[in-house]
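Subject: Interface between my chains keeps coming out wrong

I've been trying for a while to get a sensible model of this assembly. When I model each chain on its own everything looks fine, but I need the whole thing in one frame so I can look at the contacts. Pasting all components below, labels as-is. Any help appreciated, I'm running out of ideas.
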Amino acid sequence: MQRQDLRTWLLLVPAGAWFLCMLILPLIVVFVFAFGERGAAGGYVPAFTFENFANLGARWTAFKNTLILAPLGTLACLLIAYPLAYFLALRASARWRTLLLILVIVPFWTSILIRSYAWIYLLGGQGIPSLLNALGFGNPRLINTPFAVLIGIVYGYLPLMVFPIYVALERLDKRLLEASSDLGSPPWRSFLQVTLPLSMPGVATGSMLVFILLMGEFLIPAMLGGGKVFFIGNALVDLFLQSRNWPFGAAVAVALVVVMLVTVAAYLRFTRRWAGGRDDVSLM
Amino acid sequence: MRIYAFAVYLFLYIPIGVIALFSFNAGRHASQFQGFSVQWYGKALSNPFVVDAFKTSLTVALSSAVLATLFGTTAAMALQSVKGRLRIAFDALIYIAVMVPGIVIGIATLIALVTLFDWLNPVLAAVWPLADGAPKLSLGYGSLIAAHGLFSMALVIIIVRARMAGMDRSLVEASADLGATPWGTFRQVTLPQIFPGILAGFLLAFTFSFDDFIIAFFVAGSQTTLPVYVFSSIRRGVTPEINAIGTMVLAVSLLLLVTAQAILQRGRQAG
Amino acid sequence: MTDRKDFLTREKFMQELWRYKKGSVTRRHFLGVTGLGLASSVLGSAVPGLRSAAYAQGSIGDRVVVASWPNYHDPANFDAFTAETGAAVDLNVFGSNEEMLAKLQAGGSGWDVFVPTNYTITTYVEQDLIEPIDLSKLPNYDAASFDARFADAGTVNGVVYAVPRNWGTTGFVVNTSMLGDLPKPSSWKEFWDMTRAEFSGRTMVHDYQLTTIGNALKYFGYSFNSIDPAELAEAEKLLLDAKPHLFAINSDYQPSMRSTDAWMSIAWTGDGIQLHRDMPEIDYVLGKEGGELWSDFFAIPKGAPHREAAYALLNYLLNPEVNAKEVAFHGYPVADARVNAILPPEMLNDPIMYPAAELLSPLEFGAAVTLTDPNRAELMARFKSA
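Reply #2:
Try treating it as a single job with all components included. I did that and got this:
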């Protein structure tokens, strides 16, 4: 191992200490708790048992919900965000572009809680369903369904998905597209063979960002799912703030982190082929 | 294409329109419009708990952003000249900080700190030399800033490193060759180039902390941040006061961004 | 000028209440004999010594943090308290005792006052999460005028840890205008059957193990507090069967009932009254098989940061005149005879507030074991995540 000089060490120590104390240590505590036992009225009692991991199947539906709706939500977000990012990067006039960009990100700064609450009203009996009813489409149940949660997800994370794709598309050398059409390629072919591949790093970044956040999500399912759509995040909140089974909650947390590690590693390997291989994690 | 974009913007802003609409509701419920009134803005601004929550959010966001930017930048710089296992270790730490979901970090911090305090407080009480009782450690500002700063710091390191990667190294070497001290080189060559990255990191860190609910929900203890206040308001029974808060936050951020954009625009035209 | 002739001894009051609950006497007799039916204004205004202790503005601090239940407090009373003492009331709302316990166990809750239900107090004492009440700081609390049946749970091992706030029942509310040809349900069997049939997608249950599991147990006629694994297994099967038909799992059901998104929900007395008041088609029903009889208390958690403010608020709310205003707002019956003397007769005759004896007798108080039993907690969690 190379010797680092004192200055480098000093510069690294604050960040390193912070990571160790507030990230690694708490995660180790969670790992240790996962082997413990539930206290008499809840909480943690030191012990060593694999029982909590054995019981993980009791939360299988929560895992399933998350593992289905998180990728689905990411995909839906992507499908809606990409054309918008394309429009902003390649079609919008420079005059309007910045304003339009601002208009995309500003909703993101309004609390997700308040925005989700607006959806409770819109999807509830007095909102869109009553509109559909008036138009003769019957009175569909929209709130407290996986569909409502999906809408909430797309709505909440759309700005986060738009930006990386926009950045990637904006860096695109327009001359490549000109060359492509000069060579006789129809627009859709230019898109598929030039634009799309070159925007992949942005797509990868945005998707991973949204996916990671979705795996830990609990607010949107709680508000728009009415307690009926349970994500792993909801299971965790319940285990620590209601059923008070800390060891089991710790085991679920460990399981979640493992699932994240596996999926994100697979994802990175997959997208590395598109992004051209970089040796550090880049989210920008 | 333009129609599509318009539709998406509509989708983005209809719920916000609903929020803004009901913030002017004269009635008590946020779901039945009963006349126009600005009373809820007055109530929100004069509600001591709203003001408190806002101040807490602001303090935590500023502190954690400043600390994260400071330590993150220094770490990013140091990591330039670090190789081997230390480098891999740091890369792993950053990767973990970003990849572990916020809820796990919140819970982990909660149980780690609670366990620590349960153990530490009696010890402190036993050994405290002064007569007026030992300080009782508990969740609050400290835990909030520490937990928020963690994720923010990882973000800053990533951004600044990316910025540094695109930097022109020859300038740094030239500066050193011409006899400048390392600090001088940093101040006059490196810093101006990475400054946009530092600024971006700071802004992102601030935004993340100000808007964060999940981590604050677990580690805030007796302090209330604005998102946590909104959450408990929703449980308390939604009055248009929440709509007023949301609309105000939206209006202020919109104003800030548009102003910043206008200033930058003018700067670009003048310069 | 205190005319206390029609003010009963506690023993006689208890005796009459038991006779009433057993069905030996009519409700009218009960109300007449205990003086609850007499809204004698003479009595009402003539009880001496009941003033809020005068607190100078600012002397108790600038805030008091309260953890309580949905739709439980009149904001006007809090405003008046703030105007009088300068302390603003920070109200945090929870949907179950388990959530309150979890927050207190995690420490640093910052609460000054919280509202536990009768069955939780022994656990709080065991876990050392609660402080004994210094009754000398509550001059408005007169133990003798409270019905012991609803006040006793606050005293553990001879020490008073909690003072009674109000009592109530757990039944269900149903929007009768949505019934069509169906008879109005009167039992938990009908509740759970209708949930899965005619009212599919329109029923709510509490996010609260005691009431949701308890009332599922009632479907089979088991005890509300059962921790027997076989009985719990049957209840779990019923719950899982009903889950796809539920509108939501939420202890705050008023908004959904008001917007008619939900037509039926497990409910508490006061919400029943509040809903019925504004929407007369919504009725409150006590299941024939039984259900819960409960008593809520005021308590002070250990390490409350604003203790003086906590006592000031409690003393203020226990003032019979203020308490009567609270009752008029939230509709939950109070076990304080002084308050009931002030309330108007229509309220005291309200069958939701004071149910008939034959409906009251099968009700059970919650048992402490349900709070600590890991099986019940895990059952509820499994039901929610299914």
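Reply #3:
Confirming on my end. Chain C has 19 helices and twelve strands.
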